[in-house]
Amino acid sequence: MKTIYCSALLIGLLSAAGCASIQAGGDLAYGRQALLKGNNEAALGYFRSAAQKDSNYLYGVPLQQSVWSYVGRAEYLTGHIPQARQTLERVISGERVISGIRQEEIARLYLGLTLARDGDREGGLKEIESGMRGINNFLDYMNQAFRYSFGQYFDTGRDIRGAIQTDLAMISGKDLDWQRLIADTEWLGIRMEQESDLARKQWIFDQTRDSSGRPAK
Fold it and tell me: How confident is the model at residue 203 (pLDDT cuts 50, 70, 90)?
């Protein structure tokens, strides 16, 4: 009887955990929609709700970004700087590396922005530059390692990598325009979110076409 009770309890706990993860995914999806529309306060609410339901939730392929990464970004965008710094530093300290690719480069960008806005421009510049280089390496990796599959749809016109190289040149030069760098870094963070969606949609679309470009039968 005890064995049956324990088994039922375990099944119930696993089921609850699965439901929490699904609910967290739904909240994060709504949060991303709000984020991409510039509704940062709404995005923050959704992301915090997702984190409460499943604090270990990961979003995305091939980059697996922590739900806390999204919380930290939205905290920065809504002016909650001390909270954003604490959240993003925790994300970076627990960052995962898969196939040599760091998974939280976008969070690293926002940590740099947060540090700069909090008065630590030296630390902020270091994180921004590191994040930009990491994103550039990730895009190169996708285009090379997965050039015949999903990876070929990332940054096809090299617009993102071109912008990164321009900013890296500015960072290494004598005349650093902080206002421009912050604007460019914020653009890059949102652009990478958009790029992930665009690449996925194009890949799915192409899977429904034959070699002539017509709908597959």
Answer: low
Backbone angles phi, psi at 123, to 5 degrees: -65, -40
Residues comprising the chain, all counted? 217
Q: Given the structure tokens 């665009």, which residue do they identify? A: 198
Domains of the chain: 2-207 (1.25.40)
What pLDDT score was predicted for residue 14?
36
**Phi, psi angle pair for 59, to nearest 5°:** -120, 140
Query: Which residues are registered as beta bridge partners of 66?
Result: 58
Helices 2-36 + 178-207 axis angle, to 10: 120
Range 118-143 average pLDDT: 96
pTM of the shown model: 0.85
- Write the single-letter amino acid at 96: R
